[in-house]
Backbone:
């Protein structure tokens, strides 16, 4: 992933749990990947970007589901 | 054509609509049903954004979402996409992919409908402003983005003093933001390209606390609640577990456990002070465990609790002390000089309260912080009976006023109105950021 897609890492770095950092980084950036961006754009709105707030906890839950032993 | 405002507030939507109407002829379009309900109750003319929805638009959204979802399913299977996320194990990738697709299946249709509705609203009326209490949630953010693409600016009027988990606010999406104080502004400054995009206005919902409660209000509210205004009254404000961090997702019942501890303390106080009265106040965002808590209170021998859904200032007018869990209602109590007991239980993992921006209240604030059941009991008792405690809380109040609500002069609504009005009249002055964001 190029640096441009990681630009918001600093903003999520204060989260304490590594799953949170990973999940928020993914939610904030996946929709900008060239493979999906066109499918998410609708009348100039990136629907993935607009959905970050709901997707973040979904990804956190996915990571917890994959490794429940690492849950707090 | 009369300018239109797409309004997404729930609390305070009536007040801000009324304030705007005092200065200009405007039409209001409610983003949510909850907004429409408030406007209807206040007798303010409006339409609902959903009124513009036709069966054809819904069909179009379903077909658009299906096509897009199919393309995304394909893209997520591409090695190039998988390689971009090496930190995910194969197991984690599989669960993430499944959850992501399920969420998109739920969300894409609604978002496409919303974009189309905003566009239709803009084409059929003179839509000049999107006015929302937050700009991170799916619907307000989608509406803001759709409007910005049409050159219509958005104003985010902060709906709560920021604390704790903060990941939802990593970018200020609206073109302008109105916040309560310099302290609140400092939280959002890292997320704007231009500090002038954040205006310190104070909180319009808190203007009511710039003056003492009007004479007779306590008696009126107590009469409605079946309480005796002459007797001490304890209000317990409930919290809602947001579940937007790993810490809260792993401790979804912390609010419930904390409220139970508070009720246990109230039951012991009731034995020693039989004439004390208790109110329970659900979080405005909903409280799923309310019924269980009322049963818990009954088992403890507490008399039936009054469940309060009235405007916050009425609850505070009736109460002599507010017990809460890191709540903006606690700030409202402080603004009116009411003692506050803030519960941060030692039995709940510290991250729940300490993550992100950290706790709302500190020991320096005009609150008593209780970390155990016995401390809750002692704090409520001293707040109601100990003059030294009351004095300490009153002394700490001015610092709290400045931190939480800037000048606290009762003029916040006028400042928010002036900003909104300027955005309606000179929208082009506020559009630059939305356009620049697309170039990133």
Residues:
């Amino acid at each position: 992933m190029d640096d441009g897609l990681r630009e918001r890492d600093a903003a999520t770095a204060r989260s304490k749990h590594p799953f949170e950092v990973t999940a928020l980084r993914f939610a904030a950036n996946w929709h900008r990947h060239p493979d999906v961006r066109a499918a998410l754009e609708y009348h100039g709105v990136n629907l993935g970007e607009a959905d970050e707030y709901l997707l973040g906890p979904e990804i956190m839950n996915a990571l917890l589901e994959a490794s429940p032993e690492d849950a707090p | 054509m009369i300018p239109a405002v797409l309004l997404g507030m729930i609390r305070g939507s009536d007040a801000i609509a009324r304030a705007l109407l005092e200065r200009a002829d405007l039409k209001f379009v409610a983003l949510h049903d909850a907004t429409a309900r408030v406007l209807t109750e206040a007798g303010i003319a409006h339409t609902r954004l959903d009124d513009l929805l036709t069966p054809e638009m819904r069909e179009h959204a379903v077909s658009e979402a299906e096509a897009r979802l199919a393309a995304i399913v394909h893209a997520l299977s591409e090695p190039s996409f998988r390689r971009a996320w090496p930190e995910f194990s194969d197991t984690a990738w599989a669960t993430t992919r499944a959850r992501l697709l399920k969420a998109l299946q739920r969300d894409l249709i609604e978002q496409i409908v919303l974009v189309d509705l905003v566009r239709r609203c803009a084409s059929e009326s003179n839509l000049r402003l999107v006015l929302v209490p937050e700009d991170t949630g799916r619907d307000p953010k989608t509406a803001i983005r759709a409007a910005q693409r049409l050159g219509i600016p958005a104003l985010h009027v902060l709906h709560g003093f920021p604390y704790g988990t903060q990941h939802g606010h990593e970018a200020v999406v609206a073109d302008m933001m109105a916040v309560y104080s310099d302290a609140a502004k400092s939280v959002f400054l890292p997320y704007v390209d231009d500090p002038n995009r954040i205006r310190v206005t104070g909180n319009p919902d808190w203007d009511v606390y710039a003056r003492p409660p009007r004479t007779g209000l306590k008696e009126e509210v107590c009469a409605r609640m079946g309480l005796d205004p002459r007797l001490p009254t304890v209000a317990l404000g409930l919290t809602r577990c947001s579940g937007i961090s790993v810490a809260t997702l792993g401790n979804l019942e912390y609010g419930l456990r904390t409220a139970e501890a508070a009720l246990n303390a109230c039951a012991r106080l009731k034995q020693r002070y039989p004439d004390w009265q208790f109110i329970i106040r659900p979080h405005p965002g909903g409280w799923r465990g309310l019924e269980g808590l009322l049963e818990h209170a009954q088992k403890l021998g507490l008399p039936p609790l009054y469940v309060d859904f009235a405007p916050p200032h009425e609850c505070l007018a009736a109460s002599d002390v507010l017990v809460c869990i890191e709540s903006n209602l606690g700030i409202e109590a402080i603004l009116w000089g009411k003692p506050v007991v803030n519960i941060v239980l030692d039995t709940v993992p510290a991250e729940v309260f300490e993550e992100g921006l950290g706790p709302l209240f500190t020991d320096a604030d005009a609150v008593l912080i209780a970390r155990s059941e016995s401390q809750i009991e002692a704090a409520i008792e001293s707040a109601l009976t100990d003059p030294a405690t009351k004095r300490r809380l009153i002394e700490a109040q001015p610092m709290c006023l400045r931190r939480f609500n800037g000048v606290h002069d009762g003029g916040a609504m006028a400042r928010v109105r002036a900003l909104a009005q300027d955005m309606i009249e000179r929208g082009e002055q506020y559009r630059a950021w939305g356009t620049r964001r697309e170039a990133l």
In short: Residues 31 and 48 of chain A are 5 Å apart (CA to CA). Chain A touches chain B through 52 residues (CB under 8 Å). The radius of gyration of chain A is 13 Å.
